[in-house]
Amino acid sequence: HTTPQRDACADAMPRKKAGTKGPGGSGALRQQTADEDSDEELSALGVPLDSVVKVWCVHSTPNFSLPWQKRRQERSTGSGFCIDRSKRVILTNAHCVEWHAQVKLQRR
């Protein structure tokens, strides 16, 4: 799963490819060197590229007029990413997990 994400992120970043040619010859060698350089640039950022997760949430908004009654539960999905793997901290938007009853995460 990490290879497509890595390629998508690597393609999104601007690269300097001076003098690269099409397939074959020394142009292919230069292309491979440019790809290795871009991988080194991405690893220098210190951002794990496979940290994106899908957030599944079951929630229901409270009824402030009648607090002993619960409203209907709804399901929603969102996305987030891991900011600290050792502490298991995920960063996502507040509306994804607002009034949550259950939250599940899935690696993309």
Number of beta-strand segments: 4
> What's the rounded overall pLDDT mean?
74
* Strand residues, percent: 25-35%
Numbering strands along the chain, what is their spatial order in the largest sheet?
3-2-1-4
Shape: rod-shaped
Topology pattern, helix = H, strand = E: HHEEEHE
Distance between the termini: 7 Å
- Give the class from helix and strand content and strand pairing: alpha+beta
- Contiguous helical run count: 3
Helix content: 25-40%
Cα gyration radius (Å): 22 Å
Low-confidence stretches: 1-22
Largest sheet: 4 strands, antiparallel
Notes on the structure:
This protein is 33% helix and 29% strand. It has 3 helices and 4 strands. Strands 3-2-1-4 form a 4-stranded antiparallel beta sheet. Strand 2 (74-84) and strand 3 form a beta hairpin. The radius of gyration is 22 Å and the shape is rod-shaped. The chain starts with a helix and ends with a strand.
Record the SSE blueprint.
Blueprint: H1 2-12, H2 25-45, E1 52-59, E2 74-84, E3 89-92, H3 94-97, E4 100-107
Antiparallel strand pairs: 1-2, 1-4, 2-3
Summarize it.
The chain has helices at residues 2-12, 25-45, 94-97, and strands at residues 52-59, 74-84, 89-92, 100-107.
List keywords for this structure.
108 residues; alpha+beta; four-stranded antiparallel beta sheet; 33% helix; rod-shaped; disordered N terminus
